[in-house]
Specification:
Blueprint: E1 2-5, E2 8-12, E3 42-45, E4 48-51, E5 61-62, H1 64-71, E6 76-77, E7 90-91, H2 93-102, E8 105-106
Antiparallel strand pairs: 1-2, 3-4, 5-8, 6-7
Length: 114
């Protein structure tokens, strides 16, 4: 199972998932970092495994090109854009801060595409 998000590093489950008797797939990525496939694909915040934010261009790598996308419009209010790293509807320095903490994170090859 893969989880894709508009401004976070995508993740894939570390184990095979099968549907329950109702045909529903259930998988909890938040229990620990090993629930996602590959090394360092998530981090722990507040006791839960979370996705890395700051992946603005969707290439599966948090790097300088994501910063380049943010710097084009580093101050916007009431928006829904990829460069809003903390999802508050405002693009500002706090979004850069999220990117900065996660820069140089590389997604597993299975989620990278262009």
């Amino acid at each position: 199972m893969a989880v894709r998000h508009r401004n976070h590093l995508d993740i894939i489950s570390s184990s095979r998932i099968t549907a329950n008797t109702d045909g529903v797939f259930v998988y909890d990525f938040t229990t620990n970092e090993t629930t996602s496939f590959g090394p360092q694909q998530q981090k722990i915040i507040g006791g839960r495994a979370v996705m890395h934010s700051g992946e603005f261009n969707g290439d599966g790598i948090i790097q300088t090109s994501d910063y380049d996308a943010w710097i084009l419009n580093p101050a916007l209010i009431n928006v829904y854009q990829n460069t809003d790293a903390n999802l508050d509807g405002i693009i500002q320095v706090s979004d850069y801060d999220k990117w900065f903490l996660n820069k140089v994170k590389v997604g597993v090859v299975e989620i990278r595409y262009e």
